Amino acid sequence: MEGINKFWQLCHIRKGRKLVNIKELLDICIDKNLIDMTISSRKLKDETKAQKVKIRPVIIKDTLEYQVSEFVGRKVLHTNYTQKDIKKRIEKYMEEEFKQAQITRTDSLATILSSKSGTCTCKYKKAKEIKAQKELSHNRTKKYIIQEGTPVGFMIDLGVMTPDGRIVRTRYDKFRQI
Asked: Domain map of the chain by residue range?
């Protein structure tokens, strides 16, 4: 709750708008309550650079990191950053390259608009209900109707599954199809 109050104090002047220092704002927003962040609207059009950036928290080797997905043309480039490094990266994006950012947290929603001079205007809105945090694991497991590891009679008869519930490697495509 402390983060919400600081954020509210920074942003809630004159109907929810105020010029803020982006460093202070990122100190509040980039934490365990972040669901995702989208940075878009380039200041200068350039097809060779990222047109949009999405940031989400992930847990890699038991440490919280932030995965940056840069959309460059038809490609998406992924990079992982620590909390300290991601703040510097977002600062650079907002001051030099992009005009707006949308931050979704479990308890609030914020929009940051950046001017050509690098100053930021912020709009903040508390969520009506607290959202659940998305799964933070890096390698998510697919959710199938028939769970892998649970023996199913007809799958064993087809030769897709072993009696102990493991999927036969050569028949994995058939398992996904079913």
From this structure: 2-126, 141-178
Cα–Cα distance for residue pair 102/123, rounded to 1 Å: 10
| Cβ burial, residue 103 (10 Å; 0-12/13-18/19+) | buried
Rounded Cα–Cα distance for residues 123 and 100 (Å): 11
Asked whether the predicted pLDDT for residue 8 surpasses 60, the reply is no
> Between the CA of residue 30 and those of 5, 33, 38, 101, 166, what are the distances in Å?
15, 8, 13, 13, 40
Task: Specify the amino acid at residue 126.
Answer: K
Length of the chain: 178
Q: Which SS3 state, helix, strand or coil, does residue 77 take? A: strand
Residue type, 96: E
Distance CA 53, CA 164 (A): 44
Copy the structure tokens of residue 86.
Answer: 């991601």
Question: Which range is most confident: 18-27, 47-56, 120-129, 148-157?
Answer: 47-56
